[in-house]
Every structure is written in structure tokens, then in C-alpha cells.
Amino acid sequence: MAQSKTHSIRVSEGHSFVLTFASNPSTGYQWFLSNPLDNQYLSLAANEYVPPTSPSRIGQSGHQLFTFHALQKGMTSIAMKYCRPWDAGDCGSFDFTIVTIT
After folding, report:
1. pLDDT at 20 over 70
2. Is 100 exposed, middle or buried (0-12, 13-18, 19+ CB in 10 A)?
3. Where would a tag sit more exposed on the chain, N or C end, judged by fewer CB atoms within 10 A?
């Protein structure tokens, strides 16, 4: 059964923020947006994988960092899923973030 998390954050208009997820691309899984962003409120500025620090072990998880930019005041959400790109029906985790932009 897939894990699911929901949380909320508050960010100032015009500022950027990062959502960080444990990720292990050697398994084929990676984090993706489940739904398109509401481009009125948010833009995706970067998506990068940061490998584990040295000394790393084979199969050790790193982190996938998503940087978003808050465009204007309001409320929106970010829905993420941890899936294999070729198998959208087999997701290991879901993350839902409610974003309040002040």
C-alpha cells in the first residue's frame, strides 16, 4: 500500500522554497508532479537529485529537491508522486502540500 503525506507551508510572495524528498533512482522510482501546478501562483524553478554523502553504500537513497517560486498572494497546492516513469500505476508514495502565499 502506498504511503501518503499531507502538510502545509506558508511562503512570502516573490520568494522561492524547496520541497525535499528521499529518493533512490537506482530502483527506477523518482518524484513527479501528480497534477500540473497552478501557474497563477507557482512556478517550478528546479528539480535536482542530490546523491548521498560520502561514503555512500550501494542502493543508498539520496534526495530529490524541487525548487518552487511563489508568484502572487493566494492559496494553491502541490501534488507529488513517487513512481517509476514507465509504470504510472505502481506508485510507492504520494505527497500533498497546501501552499499559502502571503
Report:
1. yes
2. middle
3. N
